[in-house]
Every structure is written in C-alpha cells, then in structure tokens.
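Q: We require from you a single protein entry containing the residue sequence and its fold in token form, and nothing else.
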Amino acid sequence: QISSFFFFPHLFSPFFFFPQLAALERQVFDFLGYQWAPILANFLHIIIVILGLFGTIQYRPRYIVVYAVWTAIWVTWNIFIICFYLEVGGLSKDSELLTFNISQHQSWWSENGPGCVRKEAPVAGIAGLDSQSYVSVVGCTLEYRYIEVMHSSFQILVALVGFVYACYVVSVFTEEEDSFDFIGGFDPFPLYHVNEKPSNLLFKQTYLPA
C-alpha cells in the first residue's frame, strides 16, 4: 500500500497514458482501413499496457516486467510496419499482407490523407446508380505510407520511454522489498526467539528441587 501511494501521482503521467492513447488512436484508423493484422497487434498492446498499469497499482513487479518485455516486441513490430510501407527487403505496401490476404483494403490514409481527392468513374457494362468504381486519389499533401511510418515511429518512441520507466518502477519496488527484508519485515524468527527464553525459564522453574 505504501508503494502504491508513492507511485500514485505517476499513474497520471505521460509514461502510462501515452501508450494507451496512442494505441487507441492507431486502432481506430486501422479499423477504418480493415487492417486486420495491426488491429490484433494493437488490441494485444492495449491489454499489456493495462496489465502494466495494474502491476504498478497492485505492487506486482512481474506484470511490469511482462510489459517491459512486450515493449521490445512492440518496437520490433513497428519496425516491420515501417519496412512494409517503405518497401524494404522485398516488401510491398500494395500487398494484402496486413489484411491476411482476405481483402484488398489499404491504409485508411490512402484515400483520406491531408489534401487527398478521390476520383471515381462508372464501371463499363454496368448500369445503375451504384455503378461507381474508385479509380484514383490525387492531390495528397503527404503520401499515406509516410503517415503510417510516422505513426510507427511515434509508437517506437513511446515504447522506449515506457520501457525505461517500467525498469525504473521495478528497480524501486525491488529496493523497497530488500529494505523491508533487511529490517526483518518477513522474518518470523525474532518473535520465536523472544518467546523462547521465557518459556524455557518457566520450564526450569517447574522442576526446581524443594
């Protein structure tokens, strides 16, 4: 309880809320773009961040260690996303890898980025009001792949800061546990030794010769 009170002000610091807010923001846009692989990764990231918060409040260093380990995985995932959109190592941003090859959707920013204008044209041979087909997007101030790269870069930065802070919290918790052990907080033997001597004296007094 003392440690929880000591860290209570820090629970409202950017070290804990930035990862959650950043993941929620990214989850929204990945849902809009039907990017199923990032959606699952973001969902797992949100769960681990909540676990780290719970570990801090409830004085559970193991949960915080889990969060610290996950940040390394999260950084690796975001590096992959950066390589994917920059088409590094044979990857292609136009592939269906992030949608598990079940749809042809791309990033939401590909059609809704700053300054982007959608151009549509009727499909040949099909009549009707709904016979419009998306053709191209023009006028984008910033290409969507760079927006995704900036998102992933920000996630990496927040994850690194969270990793450092998680290590700090674990080290402080460990120091508190060590100091508590040093003063005999978990040692039951002092009570045993205190009561042992009077009991022996009473036993000897019972058998004193008359």
Q: What stands out?
A: The chain has a mean pLDDT of 77. The beta strands are 117-122, 132-138.
